[in-house]
Design a protein that fits this description.
The structure holds two protein chains of two kinds.
Chain A lengths: L4 E3 L2 E4 L5 E6 L6 E8 L3 E9 L2 E5 L6 E5 L5 E5 L8 E9 L2 E4 L3 E5 L1
Chain B lengths: L4 E3 L2 E5 L4 E6 L6 E7 L6 E6 L5 E4 L2 E5 L5 E6 L8 E8 L5 E3 L3 E6 L1
Parallel strand pairs in B: 2-11
Antiparallel strand pairs in B: 1-3, 3-8, 4-5, 4-9, 6-7, 7-8, 9-10, 9-11
Classes of the chains: A mainly beta, B mainly beta.
Chain lengths: ~110, ~110
């Protein structure tokens, strides 16, 4: 089975722009979660989608949004980028008790 | 405040030494997971523990879930340079949302 894939792997944007990140979960997995990882804050939960519905949400501003499609693929959008949004964005798909991560998208905001 | 506290934060040891990493919480979890992450990559799932008191072994790695399901430990025997990485624990109540510790950065010197 193919693992979780994320595109793009690297992204450079400037302040004020918006960005969309994509995640394809492991085949058969219906739950997709998104995390932000920074050296200072560690892994912070953004949100989780299951069957196209947001089921859980972390404590991030409304600039961070996501969606899930009928094929379980998910996208995450960040609008009006700030310097502090520079981070590794990780997607994880899960089934039953375990979650598996993709390689992440490294976002740099200049 | 992190729901899961990991200690130590940093560990630098010589090849061949043993080490233990701890993951503690005041909350009771349904299950707890351990991951290893290398720079610029996503975390890789090592093990999931579910039952209080459970011990799982993965080659030189031994994982234990506390009797009360509030804490866990990871013991590595005869560490090798390939064990270098960030070790993360994550707990979940309902398998929908996972709470991560801040991680232990391990460096094994040859």
């Amino acid at each position: 089975k193919a693992g979780v894939t994320q595109t793009p792997r690297y992204l450079i944007k400037t302040r004020g722009q918006q960005v969309t990140l994509s995640c394809s979960p492991i085949s058969g997995h219906r739950s997709v979660s998104w995390y932000q990882q920074t050296p200072g804050q560690g892994l912070q939960f953004l949100f989780e989608y299951f069957s196209e519905t947001q089921r859980n949400k972390g404590n991030f501003p409304g600039r961070f949004s996501g969606r899930q499609f009928s094929n379980s693929r998910s996208e995450m959008n960040v609008s009006t980028l700030e310097l502090g949004d520079s981070a590794l964005y990780l997607c994880a798909s899960s089934q039953e008790r375990e979650q598996f991560f993709g390689p992440g998208t490294r976002l740099t905001v200049l | 405040t992190q729901l899961l506290e990991q200690s130590p934060q940093f560990l630098s040891i010589q090849e061949g030494e043993n080490l233990t990493v701890y993951c503690n919480s005041s909350s009771v979890f349904s299950s707890l997971q351990w991951y290893r992450q290398e720079p610029g990559e996503g975390p890789v799932l090592l093990v999931t523990v579910v039952t209080g008191g459970e011990v799982k072994k993965l080659k030189r790695l031994t994982f234990q879930f506390g009797d009360a399901r509030k804490d866990s430990s990871l013991h590595i025997t005869a560490a090798q340079p390939g064990d270098t990485g960030l070790y993360l624990c994550a707990g979940t109540y309902n398998f929908n949302k996972f709470y991560f510790g801040s991680g232990t950065k391990l460096n094994v010197k040859p």
